[in-house]
Amino acid sequence: MTVFKPLILALTLMMAGGGVAQADDAEFRACLDDLTSVARARGIPGELADQVLGELEFQPRVIELDRAQPEFQQTFAGYLRARVTRERIERGRALLAQHRQLLDELTREYGVPGHYLVALWGMESNFGRYTGRMPVLDSVATLACDPRRSEFFRDELMAALRLVERESLTPAAMLGSWAGAMGQTQFMPSSYYAHAVDGDGDGQIDLWHSLADALASGANYLQSLGWNSGERWGREVSVSPDFAFEKTGIEQARSLAEWAELGVRRADGGALPLADMSGRLLLPMGHGGPAFLVYDNFDVILDWNRSTLYAIAVGYLADRIVGAGPLRAELPERDTTIATAEIAELQRRLAAAGYRPGEADGILGPATQAALREFQRDSGLIADGYPDERTRAALQTGAGAAESVEPASG
Question: What is the pTM of this model?
Answer without folding.
Answer: 0.91
